[in-house]
Amino acid sequence: MKGKEFAQHFEELGFSTNDAAVYAALLKVGQSTAGPLITETNLHRNVVYTSLAHLIVKKLVNEKTVKGKKFFSLSSPDVLNEQFAKKVEVAKEVADYIKSNLNSEAQEISIHQGNEEYGNLLISLLKALPKGGEQFVLGTGGEEFMENTMKVIWKKYHDVAHERKITVRMLGYELQRKAMEAALVKEGIYETRYLPSDTENPAGIHIYPELGIVLNIIYSDDKNPVTAIKIKDQKLTKGYLNLFHNLWKVAKK
């Protein structure tokens, strides 16, 4: 490696051009006073002394006085390794801190429309849950949603749910009990209660506490496809889960 190339590499480590030039000159001439370094670098004496001061602070250059003259020499190059190993460690700590804060604060939203996208989304969330995990469903769709969407994805969805040993706590509406109960009991993964309502809600909420994810489901009908809005937000998930538990207490088995 030539002197010029060495100086460029030194700059890449974050040192100034002048500091790199002075360090490279000292490497070439060996222990010396400032004079030979000024000659070698062709820099003003004040610039050379300033760079030497920087390098001494960084413990890359040693200074000693002999008979009233200051002599400079290079420290062990291991100092460079130690300093940059420490910087890597600090950078990792900073990066981990940033990641942890991004994960806890950043909200992610995506929209999924149509039976295929909806089915794939539900199955991907089942697979993301730990085995034996739990899903909460707040509100269920009516006959049109069951006919247009759920019957289409039912088997594939429940095959994965059974394989993953997922349990589902579901809050439905009393007027849907007769239409839903037999199919839910047959699957054996549902614990269902019913809210006293004479009207069906056009939307429902799926809650995945272990993933920090909420789905807002706009049910399909004969004219419109199902739409799921996926929101990844820990605070929102906890809020919906609290709402679910409060409604669960007043719902009927």
TrEMBL record:
InterPro entries: TrmB-like, Tscrpt_reg_TrmB_N, WH-like_DNA-bd_sf, WH_DNA-bd_sf. It comes from the Bacteria. Residues 11-74 form the Transcription regulator TrmB N-terminal domain. It holds the Pfam family TrmB. This is Transcription regulator TrmB N-terminal domain-containing protein.
